[in-house]
Every structure is written in C-alpha cells, then in structure tokens.
C-alpha cells in the first residue's frame, strides 16, 4: 500500500508550525493574533468543500484562507473570539 502525503491535510498549533509556513505568513503579513490552529490544504482539494475546516469548527469564530503562490496549497487559519 502506498500512502502519499501530497493528499494529507496537515494541522498545527503555532508552536509546531513549520518555519517555512511562518516565513510565508510573515511575508504576506498574515496575523497570528487569536489564531488557534493552522491547516495546509493540498491542491487536490482546492475545489472541494471540507466542512470540518469551515467556521465555527474547533471553536473558532473566524476561519481565513490564504493561497500559497504557485504550489497550489492553501493555508487556512482558525481564530478564536
């Protein structure tokens, strides 16, 4: 069986967020204020509705999406009240 991470949706708290994503957020002036979680959605899901990534999931009042350049991924940030 082959399991490819290219189809995995990864979720982190800020402490465990990979540095390259932190760098992208800084470059794009994406605020981490009140952020509870960060998800990386692969390109294969770009046109799909994924209900558990929408607000008010995981206790968040605001969920924002940020496309990441040419790689086709989307960074999703969940903010609390």
Number of domains: 1
- Largest sheet composition: 4 strands, antiparallel
The coarse silhouette is globular
- Give the SSE order as H and E letters: EHEEE
Percentage beta strand: 25-35%
Mean pLDDT score, rounded?
83
Q: What level of helicity do the residues show?
A: 10-25%
**Count of DSSP E strands?**
4
First and last CA, distance: 42 Å
Assembly annotation? single chain
Order of strands, main sheet, comes to: 1-2-4-3
Put simply, the count of helices is 1
Secondary-structure class:
mainly beta
Over the alpha carbons, how many angstroms does the gyration radius reach? 13 Å
Unreliable spans: none
Can you describe what's shown?
This protein has 81 residues and is mostly beta strands. The protein has one domain (18-79). The protein is built from one helix and four strands. It has a four-stranded antiparallel beta sheet with strand order 1-2-4-3, with no helix packed on it. A hairpin with a 4-residue loop joins strand 3 and strand 4 (73-79). The longest helix has 9 residues, at 19-27. The termini are far apart.
Please outline the helices and strands.
Elements: E1 10-12, H1 19-27, E2 35-41, E3 62-68, E4 73-79
Antiparallel strand pairs: 1-2, 2-4, 3-4
Give a quick precis of the structure:
It contains one helix and four strands. With 81 residues, the protein is mainly beta.
Name the descriptors.
single chain, 30% strand, 81 residues, 4 strands, mainly beta
